[in-house]
Write a structure and sequence with these properties.
The complex is a heterodimer of chains A (111) and B (118). With 111 residues, chain A is mainly beta. Chain A contains no helices and eleven strands. Chain A starts with a strand and ends with a strand. Chain B contains no helices and eleven strands. With 118 residues, chain B is mainly β. In chain B, strands 2, 4, 5, 6, 9, 10 and 11 form a seven-stranded mixed β-sheet that branches. In chain B, strands 1-3-8-7 form a four-stranded antiparallel β-sheet, with no helix packed on it. The chains are: A mainly beta (111), B mainly beta (118).
């Protein structure tokens, strides 16, 4: 079946450094790729998304890149801050509205 | 205030005792979905609904039922709960995406329901 693999499962960086999280999807029909942030004890919230007709999207310190040929997309966070510490989930959707999430990456930003 | 609400937030029950977790949204969203979250497995989709009376299975539908009789409500029903359904459950909703855009668009999640089945 369809799946989304996410790496790494845990990532620890120093404040101010960059963090990169990578995801690979299996369903070639996927065309919408959101990223969600979940702080401890809270609900997931969308931080950025990208559609298949775009290769890169940026919003302040956050950027996402998509390589449809390789079925690979990545989240980049620059100038990390302690408040970026959370669990990040990637996901892939197709027009059928079925959503497949990655297993999550726990990001620690050390002050 | 635009929101997705779930009730109850916490529930401890016994094997076999039917239960319903309610989900309601006030944003007039067409799309609604249920997920379960387990450590190391991320969020797994149980069922989703694209509109009233239109539902479909996600990745892990076994042991669950849903209904969508009204646009704002999407209850999750466990007819005979078992311990392996102990989990954190999230409801989510989304507006209809632009044509050909793909996927449900930004999903707004409820606060979660922590269910324990003993």
């Amino acid at each position: 079946g369809e799946n989304v693999e996410q790496h790494p499962s845990t990532l620890s960086v120093q404040e101010g450094d960059s963090a990169v999280i990578k995801c690979t999807y299996s369903d070639s029909a996927s065309n919408y790729f959101p990223w969600y942030k979940q702080e401890l004890g809270k609900r997931p919230q969308l931080i950025i998304d990208i559609r298949s007709n775009v290769g890169e999207k940026k919003d302040q310190r956050i950027a996402v890149t998509l390589n449809k040929t390789a079925k690979h997309f990545s989240l980049h966070i620059t100038e990390t801050q302690p408040e970026d510490s959370a669990v990040y989930f990637c996901a892939a959707n197709n027009r059928g509205f079925k959503t497949i999430f990655g297993a999550g990456t726990r990001l620690f930003v050390k002050a | 205030e635009a929101q997705v609400t779930q009730n109850p937030r916490y529930l401890i029950t016994v094997t076999g005792k039917k239960l319903t977790v309610t989900c309601s949204q006030n944003m007039n969203h067409e799309y609604m979905s249920w997920y379960r979250q387990d450590p190391g497995l991320g969020l797994r989709q149980i069922y989703y609904s694209m509109n009233v009376e239109v539902t479909d299975k996600g990745d892990v539908p076994e042991g669950y039922k849903v209904s969508r009789k009204e646009k704002r409500n999407f209850p999750l029903i466990l007819e005979s709960p078992s311990p392996n359904q102990t989990s954190l459950y999230f409801c989510a909703s989304s507006s209809k995406p632009q044509p050909l855009a793909g996927g449900p668009g930004e999903q707004y999640f409820g606060p979660g329901t922590r269910l324990t089945v003993t």
